Amino acid sequence: MNPSDAQRVIDTHVTSQLLVHKRQGQSAFERLLPIFMEESRMLVAQMRCAIAASDSEGLRLTAHKLKGSASVLGSVDIRILSQSIMDKLDEGMMPQSDTLLQIEHAIEVFHEAAQAIITR
């Protein structure tokens, strides 16, 4: 992934703030990334269960958590996709599982972009 692709996936204003805060040789971004990756995959699994159970409130809460976590790390696509789930629920529609496939893809793309930022 080249740097211009990373800028479309990651809010560089957010990440630059996290990259300057170092502790024991690691930036806040580097410390938070593995936590985010584990949590985001867990939240997607919870969303999949909520969709299967037609649990709109559980889905809303989980999408909101993912949106917040994505915002903290500057993941633009994950934040937008999570908000789209919440918007559909506000319109009385239950999102389909294909939205979760999009989020899973966005998580992997974000991880790749984040690794590129860390290693440059």
Secondary structure blueprint with pairings:
Layout: H1 3-9, H2 12-20, E1 22-23, E2 26-27, H3 28-52, H4 56-73, H5 76-90, H6 97-119
Helix pairs in contact: 1-6, 3-4, 3-6, 4-5, 5-6
Provide a short characterization of the protein structure.
With 120 residues, the chain is mostly helical. It is 81% helix and 3% strand.
Give an overview of the whole structure.
The chain is mainly alpha-helical. Helices cover 81% and strands 3% of the residues. It is built from 6 helices and 2 strands; from the N terminus they run H-H-E-E-H-H-H-H. The protein starts with a helix and ends with a helix.
Question: Can you give keywords for this protein?
Answer:
120 residues; mainly alpha; Four Helix Bundle (Hemerythrin (Met), subunit A); two-stranded antiparallel ribbon
Taken together, the total number of domains comes to: 1
Element-by-element helix/strand order: HHEEHHHH
Task: Please give the alpha-carbon distance between the first and last residues.
Answer: 12 Å
Give me the secondary-structure category. mainly alpha
Beta-strand percentage range:
under 5%
For the sheet with most strands, the description reads: 2 strands, antiparallel
Tally of DSSP β-strands: 2
Major beta sheet, strand line-up: 1-2
CATH superfamily: HPT domain
> How many helical stretches?
6
Under CATH, the topology can be stated as: Four Helix Bundle (Hemerythrin (Met), subunit A)
The percent of residues in helical segments reads over 70%
What is the CATH domain class? Mainly Alpha
Low-confidence stretches are 1-6
Task: Please tell me how large the radius of gyration is.
Answer: 15 Å
Based on the coordinates given, report the CATH architecture. Answer: Up-down Bundle
Report the average pLDDT across residues.
92
Shape: elongated
